[in-house]
Amino acid sequence: MQHFEDSIYNLIVETSTNLPGDVRRAVAKGRALEDRATRSGLALTTIAQNIGMAELQVSPICQDTGMPTFIIHTPVGVNQIEMKKDIHSAIVRATQNGKLRPNSVDSLTGENSGDNLGAGTPVIHFEQWEEEGVDVRLILKGGGCENKNIQYSLPAELEGLGKAGRDLDGIRKCILHAVYQAQGQGCSAGFIGVGIGGDRTTGYELAKKQLFRKVEDINPVEDLGKLEEYIMENANKLGIGTMGFGGEVTLLGCKVGVMNRLPASFFVSVAYNCWAFRRQGVLVDPATGKIREWLYESGTGISVDDAGVPSPEPVAVHAAGAAGSGVVPGDATIPGAPAVLPAAEAAEGAGQPATAGGSREVRLTTPISEEDIRSLRVGDVVILSGEMHTGRDALHKYLMDHETPVDLNGAVIYHCGPVMLKDEEGWHVKAAGPTTSIREEPYQGDIIKKFGIRAVIGKGGMGPKTLKALQEHGGVYLNAIGGAAQYYAECIKKVNAVDFMEFGIPEAMWHLQVDGFAAIVTMDSHGNSLHADVEKDSAAKLAQFREPVFK
Hints:
Strands 2-1-3-10-11 form a five-stranded mixed beta sheet, with helices on one face. By secondary structure, it is an alpha/beta fold. It contains 15 helices and 21 strands. Helix content is 30%, strand content 23%. It starts with a helix and ends in a 9-residue tail after the last helix.
């Protein structure tokens, strides 16, 4: 199979950069249900832009290209050892070319291998079959949504839902609770795969395999088909919304599978996947290794605009002259976007009713003053320019006991692990969306106070310790749109410098010059948290599903 490595490389590139047709249609259906003037509507508009940008630029849809996971069916006699070598070579090439982020980290030392190879990575499952071709399927599932996977052992007592027994109704409760507990931290609106039965390991494997089903297929098991329909109808009533902003669209797909179990065990395993549902497959000639057929519909030519709504005219986020025009870059894609307010005017109008869907737009340049920060309220859209600094898990842990190489007083920290490439001109940002912020909750409040940080950008929100620090010190949490890696990469004009490369590219501290970087205030300096409000509201709505449905 002399062409197998090239075929796998092409599969990786397509999976990372071009969202499949069935997923695009699901996103379009979600957009049709959401008011575009709301925060969730804005998020879906940004997602739609990002999908097109990634395809056009052949760059990662999301900067977190996840743990590459292959499921491969081969005829008897095919050399799986050689196939594995070719897959590893294709993974290395895709990483070097910026199609995959280096994501393989030694669990004991924290060292990043730099090429996505290491113990357990990538994940490759081989199975033999009696067909003539080689079936190769790949999923790139990012860490943010992987962290929201959950497994239930029945019977169980579930928050808001009461007792969940070993029956279809107990399974129903588990799935609803899984959607609820994810909130916006898994980059909703999401897709879920559910595995019923098995043991703890095979249950999760079955759940993840459900994600390889096509979004529009029908479950051949009648009871499971009814369950999938029920979940799709009712999970969106929880009001969690896109990115956890609140809204009509929380779930875009639900697929359920079942296998036998032990008498003493009854597991319900849920694999949560973000809106950037990156999976693709190819049928390969076992003699040549060439691709015979793509197994999922290509996204090329399939619009993510909802039916009946005119497509917006895109405006580049680096539009010339935007800074002084009163129009935020990209505003043309947001119907009724309010005028940009200078920080001083925003402070004067802080107590006034918001406009255009309940938000104002405020343009700020780093470093930011406490006065400007305290003028902001939950719901405001902040447009940032100046220098910001990336910081994730390794950096936050380090900064608890050490000083920073740069002055962070008045600074913005961006929870982001970008995809970066270096050439003779220096470093270039290939993808740069936010990571899930809640992982930094043990550190963030202390880091804010210690260094004078004024704003933290990420996704999914943070907890009470960070909220208290924002209130006491004068800071805000800005929620960027998870997965919108190309949208935000366009806002980064220059890589000023980098520190802590020993942490690996995703965990290094990148000093980035940005212009027109938009994010929404979801936690302010006055003790308000959109995330806490949405979680409380969705918990109340979850309770309406307590009573039996399947008897």
